[in-house]
């Protein structure tokens, strides 16, 4: 595990909601736009002592469930009602599905569970779906991620995720091509055209957006031909200097 902290959700339909983030190490993909550093397995996890105050302390890995529950209970007692849900993120948290099978039923008694995933490990999702309240699923575009052959894994994942509360997110920039948007729309339509699609302009750490306003609207228009809910939402935590 890398870190546990409190911040706002900066992406997707729950943008602006306060969440507790549990970030797991490791990922099965290596996307070009990834904003998380993975320079090896860390021996310690950074844990915020006070929610949202960035007063991190280091605790040894592996972090035990009892430690996490104790932290959540302390935060709930001292700062009741400030958190909407608990975000399980990474990296790719589904790589830790065996740990999550043990953790999620107990964590979910404290907060709803929000899973952030790269959307390819459908077998792991199948094992955990009953314990998850929200699924934020990426579909990786070749133009922004550098991955070319993930269409079928994404389709299988979305088919499984559609049994729960899922939305799809795509990261776009000026290099994003029309055919990529058509392919995403076809995948979503083949499962359920009402599944929301979030178009997320690529945003750098200094909050510079890597796509023009007109091209952003063109992409939203292309997707809306087949889909019933297409929204453009940037990474708002970048603009607010949140974690």
Write down the oligomeric state: single chain
Number of domains: 1
Mean pLDDT, rounded to whole units? Answer: 95
Proportion of residues in helical segments = 25-40%
Question: What sort of overall outline do the alpha carbons produce when their principal axes are compared?
Answer: globular
Judged by helices, strands and strand pairing, the structural class is alpha/beta
Our measurement of the CA-to-CA distance between the termini, rounded to an integer number of angstroms, reads: 16 Å
With strands numbered from the N-terminus, the spatial order across the biggest sheet is: 4-3-1-2-5-6-7-8-9-10
Q: SSE string, helix = H, strand = E?
A: EEEEHEHEHEHHEHEHEH
Strand content: 15-25%
Q: What can you tell me about this protein's structure?
A:
This protein has 243 residues and is α/β, with parallel strands linked by helices. The protein has a single domain, classed as TIM Barrel (Alpha-Beta Barrel). Strands 4-3-1-2-5-6-7-8-9-10 form a ten-stranded mixed beta sheet. Helix 7 links the parallel strand 9 and strand 10. Helix 5 packs parallel to helix 6. The mean pLDDT is 95.
Summarize the topology:
Elements: E1 3-8, E2 18-23, E3 44-48, E4 56-60, H1 65-78, E5 85-89, H2 97-107, E6 113-117, H3 122-128, E7 134-138, H4 142-145, H5 151-161, E8 166-172, H6 178-191, E9 197-201, H7 213-224, E10 230-232, H8 236-240
Parallel strand pairs: 1-3, 2-5, 5-6, 6-7, 7-8, 8-9, 9-10
Antiparallel strand pairs: 1-2, 3-4
Short description:
The protein is 32% helix and 21% strand. It is built from 8 helices and 10 strands. A hairpin with a 7-residue loop joins strand 3 (44-48) and strand 4 (56-60).
